[in-house]
Write a structure and sequence with these properties.
The termini are far apart. The chain contains 15 helices and 34 strands. By secondary structure, it is α+β, with helices and mostly antiparallel strands.
Length: 680
């Protein structure tokens, strides 16, 4: 029984355990009444009204709520979609601050169309059977021991983008019952693989609780990527080996603790820009029924519809304190309670839009910048949404997925003319994007492949997308991939084509890992993972997306491992800043040379047939390197510059037959690179 001295409080929002039960606080500016529905294991529902109200927060004490208790909300108020009001007390809604979520939606039974008809005729009294429910958790149940965040410097960071389920679903060494789960990724076999490869951070595709899509389930498909968030505080329950009655929280914490013990940071790909509730035709699962106009941006003068810059049907209303507060509470929770080390913000530009325009001075960015909890945390933006491209437009202490790097490096290596000037900018950390605002190369997250698009194997094996398995007649996914099949579409045994593909994969990996900035590789690229030409595998929760460890390319893996070790060992290959001439001073310098060993002059950059370039990379007190790139279809002779220290030696190349015979010249094979070292 609740203590006779207990009184309810408006903060923190959500469920907070107290003696004898819990304090529950829910924000709703426009609701009339709010009820907490507690569900027993047999589905019996007990309702408690939150009778207190402070400002726009309804709050009250609910007896006998303990860890593992399943609960939902019922919110009463006017039903007037034309005015943006979608209250329906018959709906069981998910608490936006739930720290664990049980079950999933059964779209065969769950109510979809209540937004289109009379809410009084639609009753969710059997809600425990087919909706997601919040689960009460105990924040003190997990022993963090001596866990410490690695706090790896950005200049020493190598990001590995991967998927909790796909990474271990078929992984040898991980017990079958743990595969595809947080515990599976925390297993020594998975940890050992990551540490051996040498990456310093895993960027996990969405692990916030998300909802499946009815239209995919009708096709026999599943939402694999997870960009369909519903619970911003809860780890996705399907990735839990221990069940969904709250134990998924401790299991996720165990994953973070295990990765930290191995020196690996955890970065979450987070989706705060929209939710799973979709547009005006979508279901009411949580926010719509709690306070629609506070949590979503509605179309001005047409409040029945949603303003959408995400392509999903809705956009979170970051101009409103309730929605913005939810995001900030969530970020702090994942840092303080779950110990994560960083965030990659999906469609981050949407989060900076106030009044429709993106702004570096938006409330979202300002709040993050002044928050001491978030100050040391890595912040990475996907700097675009459906309405605009903002690469270079985020604050100085943010990094950004650099789509220009991806596109320009792809164009260079497939032989596009006139790319030398542009690709040199990318290799030097995109100063054309960042230097004007006095931002360093570490603002650029460099990548050529990511979850959205071709894998590296497919980038070098397909000219066209092959998304038929998605059930949309190959109409979905990007059509302009800047890819090359190198002579034949799809798999081949042709030795010439196969050898060229191998070279190109190594060229791409080397360009990412030897360029200034923060390198990110797509998980599985190092073992030549293919999605069979599918460049939009969001719905492929199957062997198309899962890592095929049985057919891993060990040679490419070893090559990637060597590149990572080189980068982390050699300061010249991971500069905070580059100076474009040794005479400028400072520890990090670079020279950019033509194939004849001379400096470029202005007209050289526009020469359409010039497809080869050399960079001499130096760092005071350390070895120097010459990075030679030839994207031409013919071999190219390079006049080697004077070695700063000892004679040049061959460190690494995508040309298996390359060797230095004459210390003054080197012939580089078609579509290949070489990295030369001059040691102290």
């Amino acid at each position: 029984m609740l203590s006779e001295w207990a009184s309810s409080q408006p903060y923190p929002l959500g469920v907070s355990l107290v003696e004898g039960g819990a304090n529950v606080a829910i924000y709703s500016e426009r609701a009339d009444r709010v009820f907490v529905s507690v569900f027993a294991d047999d589905g019996t529902e007990t309702r408690t009204e939150l009778i207190n109200r402070t400002g726009h927060v309804f709050h009250g004490l609910v007896e006998d709520m303990v860890p593992g208790t399943r609960y939902g909300l019922r919110v009463d108020g006017p039903w007037d979609p034309a005015a943006g009001l979608r209250f329906n007390v018959n709906k069981v809604l998910l608490d936006p601050h739930a720290t664990a979520i049980g079950g999933e939606y059964d779209w065969g039974q769950a109510v979809f169309g209540h937004d289109l008809g009379d809410p009084d005729a639609l009753d969710d009294t059997d809600g425990a059977g087919h909706v997601m429910l919040g689960v009460v958790t105990d924040p003190n149940s997990f022993d963090w021991g001596d866990d410490r965040p690695p706090r790896t410097r950005l200049s020493e960071t190598v990001v590995y983008e991967t998927h909790v389920k796909g990474f271990t679903k078929l992984m040898p060494g991980v017990p079958e019952e743990l595969r595809g789960t947080y515990a599976g990724l925390a297993h020594p076999a998975a940890i050992d693989y990551l540490t051996s490869l040498g990456v310093t951070a895993v960027e996990l595709m969405p692990v916030h609780q998300f909802a499946q899509d009815a239209h995919l389930e009708e096709k026999g498909l599943r939402n694999y990527w997870g960009y369909n968030t519903l619970g911003f505080f809860a780890p996705h329950n399907e990735y839990s080996a221990s069940g969904d009655r709250g134990s998924q929280v401790d299991e996720f914490k165990g994953l973070v603790k295990a990765l930290h013990a191995a020196g690996i940071e955890v970065i979450l790909d987070v989706v705060y820009n929209h939710t799973a509730e979709g547009n005006d035709q979508g279901p009411t699962l949580s926010f719509k029924g709690i306070d629609n106009e506070s949590y979503y941006r509605l179309v001005e003068n047409d409040l029945a519809h949603y303003f959408d810059t995400t392509g999903t049907g809705n956009s979170v209303n970051v101009s409103h304190p309730a929605a913005l507060g939810l995001i900030m509470d969530s970020l702090r929770y994942w840092v303080t309670e779950m110990h994560v080390d960083g965030f990659r913000f999906d469609l981050a530009t949407t989060l900076t839009r106030q009044g429709g325009d993106a702004s570096i001075h938006s409330a979202f960015l300002t709040l993050i910048q002044q928050d001491p909890t978030l100050g040391p945390i890595k912040m990475i933006a996907e700097p675009w949404d459906t309405a605009g491209y903002q690469v270079g437009g985020f604050p100085a202490d943010w990094s950004e997925w650099n789509g220009k790097f991806r596109d320009d490096v792809r164009d260079f290596w497939r032989g596009t003319e006139g790319m030398l000037g542009t690709v040199s900018q990318r290799i030097l950390g995109s100063p054309d994007v960042y230097e004007e605002s006095r931002r360093s190369p570490l603002s650029s997250v460099n990548f050529v492949t990511a979850h959205d698009g071709f894998t590296l194997a497919d980038l070098t094996s397909y000219d066209e997308k092959h998304n038929e398995a998605n059930g949309e007649d190959n109409a979905d996914g990007e059509s302009d991939n800047r890819s090359s099949n190198n002579g034949l579409e799809g798999p081949t045994d042709d030795p010439v084509i196969f050898a060229r593909r191998i070279r190109q994969r190594k060229n791409f990996l080397a360009t990412v890992l030897l360029s200034a900035g923060v390198p990110m590789i797509l998980g599985g690229d190092e073992i030549c993972r293919t999605q069979r030409g599918n460049n939009n595998a969001y719905a492929q929760d199957n062997e198309i997306s899962w890592f095929d460890w049985a057919h891993a390319d060990q040679e490419l893996h070893d090559f990637t491992q060597t590149l990572i070790r080189l980068r982390l060992a050699e300061p010249a290959l991971r500069p905070d800043w580059y100076r474009h001439s040794p005479e400028v001073g400072g520890p990090g310098t670079v020279r950019i040379l033509r194939t004849d060993g001379q400096e470029f002059i202005d007209e050289d950059w526009d020469e359409p047939d010039a497809k080869a370039i050399a960079f001499v990379l130096m760092f005071e007190g350390s070895a120097a390197f010459a990075f030679l790139l030839n994207a031409a279809d013919n071999g190219v002779d390079f006049e080697l510059p004077d070695a700063p220290h000892t004679d040049w030696t061959l460190e690494l190349s995508s040309d298996p037959g390359l060797e230095i015979v004459d210390p003054s010249t080197l012939t580089l094979a078609p579509s290949s690179f070489a990295l030369l070292r001059s040691g102290l």
